[in-house]
Amino acid sequence: MPEHICDDRRRLLRAAASTFAATRLGLFGSSAAQLSCAAFPPDEGKLPSLDNATAWLNSPALASPGLRGRVVVVQFWTYTCINWLRTLPYTRAWAERYERHGLVIVGVHSPEFAFERNVENVRRAAGELNVAYPIAVDSDHAIWRAFSNQYWPALYIADAQGRVRHHQFGEGGYERSEAIIQQLLAESGATSVARTPVSVTGRGVEAAADWANLKSPESYLGYDRASSFAPSGELTIDERRRYIVPVQSTLNRWSLSGEWTARRDAVVLNAPSGRIVYRFHARDVHLVMGPAIPGRTVRFRVRIDGHPPGEARGSDVDANGDGLVGAPRMYQLIRQTTPIAERRFEIEFLDRSVEAFAFTFG
Questions:
Q1: Alpha helices (H) along the chain
Q2: What whole-number distance in Å separates Cα of residue 161 and Cα of residue 183?
Q3: What is the Cα–Cα distance from 338 to 213, expressed in whole angstroms?
Q4: In angstroms, rounded to a whole number, what is the distance separating the alpha carbons of residues 348 and 301?
Q5: How confident is the model over 333-350, as pLDDT tens digits?
Q6: Dist. CA 346–CA 227, nearest whole Å
Q7: Among 16, 324, 325, 338, fewest CB within 10 Å belongs to which?
Q8: Rounded mean pLDDT of 192-197?
Q9: Quick one: average pLDDT of 304-318?
Q10: Is the dihedral of CA 182, 186, 190, 193 positive or negative?
Q11: Cβ-proximal residues to 31 (8 Å cutoff; 6+ apart), any chain
Q12: Coil, strand or helix: which one is 125?
């Protein structure tokens, strides 16, 4: 199963990344630390083809022969992924600084949810997020499979000879990745390449997570991957049902109120005034959701510990907690200031026909 890289998984996936490099190089006897600090990044094999993209945005199709002689950064993403969104300020800044020196950044959009397979949704999201570099739309996951990729986000850097020289799974490693970009550009003959890292400040949903206070994991709502629904075991599959929020709630458990249908990938509201309640511990609360009927707008209202969020509002709600669902995407609902504590989050949908897919935190 593909994974977002978040929370306490980061430590395990850093180890997986080191194993990936060692496997490709046959260097299980070598130190992972020695690999990461090598003066010249190792050869991890030929950059797989991008030829099987279902569409291209911001660029004509980029075939492998046309990329020869260029340093290439390939990043796998999906537009609702908070872990990818927090890397975007860096890839955007690298594209702006190094394109004139011969760098090509390709964002491979490999969808997680069905609505992300729609190229028009990807086009809209890319425009709203200011993703101006070439995008290979990978709706069938053909490029994903060619790379044997497993994660969002995942970054691969290839030299001018088309050999992968570095990879980064998940957030972080920005200075190391940029230093390798600079080195490979110099190897390719580029001159006057900056040797200092870009200065980046993520804003809004692109701001770095508050890792010290992040104690709530990504939580899927569809029955295929739902694991923290309360009361446990009472999520009815593919049938309309009226739910009641339990009197007691515990950290990192979510529940429903109102008439909902639990689908494989989402919960769908069948009547107005349905609620989702989540007890969380994090600075930010995000919810991937959209109208169940394309083109419809759904009103919602957010509460935190029973009150309007005020200054703790996210970018998609006002101080009273009111907002609109108009397109399938990730919505930022809460951004707290310190001190961060365990809180009760509640979202009420004033109209029917909304579908909610997953909570993420920051």
A1: 9-25, 32-36, 64-67, 82-85, 88-98, 119-128, 142-146, 174-187
A2: 14
A3: 10
A4: 5
A5: 999 998 999 999 999 999
A6: 19
A7: 338
A8: 92
A9: 97
A10: positive
A11: none
A12: helix
150 DSSP β-pair partners = none
Q: Which pTM does this prediction carry?
A: 0.88
Give the confidence band of 40 by pLDDT, cuts at 50, 70, 90. low
Query: Which segments within 201-253 are labelled E, that is strand?
Result: 219-220, 240-243
Question: Region 6-20: what's the mean pLDDT?
Answer: 37
- Amino acid present at 201: T
Q: Which residues of 33-70 are buried (b: 16+ CB within 10 A; e: fewer)?
A: eeeeeeeebbebeebbebeebeebbeeeebeeeebeeb
The owner of tokens 């860096």 is 90
- Could you give all domains of the chain from N- to C-terminal order, each with its CATH number? 3-206 (3.40.30.10), 211-361 (2.60.120.260)
pLDDT digits (tens, 9 = 90+) for 245-270: 998 889 999 999 999 999 999 999 99
Locate 251 and state its tokens.
């950290």
- Cα Rg of the chain (Å, integer): 21
